[in-house]
Amino acid sequence: MSSMNASCYSVAMDLGVCQLRNFNSISFLSALLSAEGSHLKLDNSSSGASVVAIDNKIEQAMDLVKSHLMYAVREEVEVLKEQIKELIERNSQLEQENTLLKTLASPEQMAQFQAQVQTGSPPPAPASTVPGPPILTQPASHSSGPSA
């Protein structure tokens, strides 16, 4: 199960990286970081204001990264919710089918199945596990014409 969680995490991170590589995101981040460049030059006389401006830019960039990652994670959550919904429906179908097959199986078939489950042996060929109605054979003299 941990490998599944790791792959989900990996997918979410990949989506986040894809979002960050998006041209609009990069151009926005670039514009965000460079838009105040002229203000930073004006603030050089006061190093405290310059540090605050840089800190603000870093915080804005981190917020942008965080929002893109959250968007990617939300998308992945929606995909996983849909997969879970489909798996629950499939499981319900299989449970109903299993119940039906159990009711249609003869006691001998159920005993044979239980023995196979306990020993871990593979099931025999389908013809031997599901006996059908007895096959009636006709004598060779009657098989020359079409049967009705």
From TrEMBL:
Pro residues bias spans: 121-136
Coiled-coil spans in chain: 70-104
Ranges of Polar residues composition bias in the record: 138-148
Name this protein carries in UniProt: TSC22 domain family protein 1
One of the Pfam families matching this protein, by short name: TSC22
InterPro entries assigned: TSC22/Bun, TSC22/BUN_CS
Residue ranges, annotated region (Disordered): 111-148
Compartmental location: Cytoplasm; Nucleus
GO CC term (a single one): cytosol
